[in-house]
Design brief:
Length: 189
Amino acid sequence: MGLALVAMFVSSFLYRAENPSRVVRTDTPAMPQGMGGMGGMADSGPMKEIMELMQRQKDEPDNPAVQLELAERFMMMGAYDRALIFLEKAAGLDPDNPQILNDKGIALYNTGKAEEAKAAFEAILAKNAADFRARFNLGLLYKYALGDMDKAAEQLRAVMDSPAVDERTRSQAKSELENPPEAGDKPAK
C-alpha cells in the first residue's frame, strides 16, 4: 500500500514537472462565494461579462477603466468586498478619478467601513466641492451610518441647491431631508 502511495506521488510530481502550465494561479482574485459550480451559466450574462473583463484585466493590468468596470460588476452583484480589490487597484492607477473614489466610498459603506467611506467622499469634495453625487452620498452616510442629522442636512441641502444636480437626485435629497431615519433604515442604493 505504501509503495502504491509513493508511486502515485512520484507520477504526480513528474506530471507537474512535464506540464508546468497546469498550476493554480493565486494572483487573480477568486470569484465571489457561490459563483463557482454554475455550470453553463458562466457562458452568458453577468458571469460571461466578468470572465471577459478578467481576461482584459490580465491583458491590461494597468488600465484603471478595466479595474473600475470589474469593480462595478461586482458591486451590482452585491460583492462589495470583491469590488474593493479592483477599486484599490484602480485608485492606485488613477487616484484623482472621482468615479473610482465614489464607488470606493459606496463599497466601503456596504462592507461596514463608514469612516473610510466618509474619507473617500470627502476626498472627492476636497478636489471638487460642486460634486453633488459625492455630497449626496456623504449626506446619506451621515444620516444612516454616522447618525449625524445636522451634517446630513447640510450635505443634502447643498445637493438641493446645486445648479448642476439633476431633478431626480434633487427630489431624492429633499425626500431624505424630510424623512428622519427609522430604526434599521438603510439608504436606497
